Amino acid sequence: MELTLDELNKTIMEMRTKGLLSEALVLAKQGLLVAIENGNYGHGLDLYYQKILIHHAFGDTLSMVNLIDEYEGCCQKYGTAKDIMHFYLVMSLIYDLVGVHEKTVEMTKKSIEYATELKDLVMLVRCHNNLCYLEVEKGSYSEAMQAGLLAIAYNKELVKVEPELAKLQEIRINNNIADVYIWEGDFDTAQALLDSSLSSVLVHNHKREKVAALFGYGFLYEKQHKLEEAVIYYRQAIELAQSYGDKPILKKVMRMLLHVLYELDRRDEIFEVQRAYIDLTEKMSADNLLQQVMYLEFNQQKEKLEKKALYDPLTGVLNRHFIDSELHEWIQGAQNCQLFVGIIVLDIDYFKTYNDRHGHLFGDMILQLLASGLRDFLLQQDAEIIRYGGDEFIICIRNKDGAAINRLVMDLHAYILTLALDYENERYPIKVSMGACINNQKNYDFKNLFELADRSLYRAKNDGRATYVISEL
User: Fold this and answer.
1) What residues have CB less than 8 Å from 115, skipping those under 6 apart?
2) What PROSITE patterns has UniProt attached to this entry (predicted)?
């Protein structure tokens, strides 16, 4: 492939934003095959996510469901906090399409939790906007407005970094908030929002969003008892949804159209729409989508997915819960195989000064850079990286050669000193103090090893920082 997987992922996102869905789907399929073949599971997960979102834009629920098993398996084995966030969003979309409202809300709120921790603007906009729609469906209009306003606020930030995507999100937000205003009887504000959606150049390349706007007009006129106008817009929405086969939206709009036709007592049209509605319902039932989704829910190995709670959302490395729930087994494995164990404790020198001078966002970027560097350096090692709290990290290493762990500690410290954050035309090198304890193949008690490594860390600090001390036990 001419594009790298990184460039490919970005290109697919841009194509989705422009509404070039068929072309984006072809690239996603090709890229996914290459990523999996080369064992590049990080990019593979991104491409799974892209592929599923494209199917969602097409209204192709069956293809989404068919991909979930593979996607979930890959998330469990190789996923970071970002991938679990994406997985929850995808599940929320699927539950919504098959009509399981409670699970849709649950999955949406879980994805919001991760997006908040990761400060992911794209997801914060999308998820809060989805929550706005879900609260409208539930009849909670105050909560819907609150979620919609949060989506607007985040979208104002998004426009600074992803202006085209922010325009598309604005259409989606306007469509949902218009529904809130319609329910509250503020028809003028609702119409202004829908006018904004349909007058956008972008909406004509996004059929799903255009259907939502047309549906909004139909609902607006229905609530104003302008039933003839409502029929026109509902029929336009149905025609457009049929053009790309969006069954869930078709069913929803047909149901609303039938209600208006009963009010108008248009018997011939009622018969025609009823027949199409029944036919559509039978086709959707034949797909067994609800049964498939509930089967997935029943058979998901939840404990594996919940293990992702062991990961720190900001940095993607393990958090201290790993020490309580998994580390004993990890060390036991080393003892059973008579491997040496090394425990490294490190923190960033003068980290508080970074935060005080440059703000917590800068501090977060420093932590993410350090975690990424640790992952890269230790990729081929039998090692676990844990964010213990704040700027303190613990690294647990197993190796058949104690001297190799000793050399690794020295090389790791030297490597970290090469890391630097480029920020606002300045370069900020990362300096860490590090303490390590390597066992003698007799002592496998983590508490003892950790305490000695921690004391070694403070010796390194007392020696002037930006250095390391290695002890043996």
Assistant:
1) 85, 123, 124, 127
2) GGDEF, TPR
Residues 394-422 have pLDDT tens digits of: 999 999 999 999 999 999 999 999 999 98
CA of residue 261 relative to chain centroid, distance: 41
Spans of the chain, pLDDT less than 50:
1, 298, 301
DSSP one-letter string for 312-338: -TTTSSEETHHHHHTHHHHHHHHHHTT
Structural domains of the chain, with CATH: 311-472 (3.30.70.270)
Which is nearest to 90 in space by CA: 252, 249, 296, 253? 296
Half-sphere exposure of 217 (CA within 13 A, CB side): 21
How many angstroms separate the CA atoms of 1 and 68, rounded?
Answer: 26
Residue with tokens 């809130």: 180
Strands 318-319 and 420-423 come out as unpaired
Contact residues for 146 (Cβ-Cβ < 8 A; gap 6+): none
Q: Supply the angle between the helices 121-138 and 81-97 in degrees, to the nearest 10.
A: 30
Q: Residue 34: its pLDDT value, please? A: 87
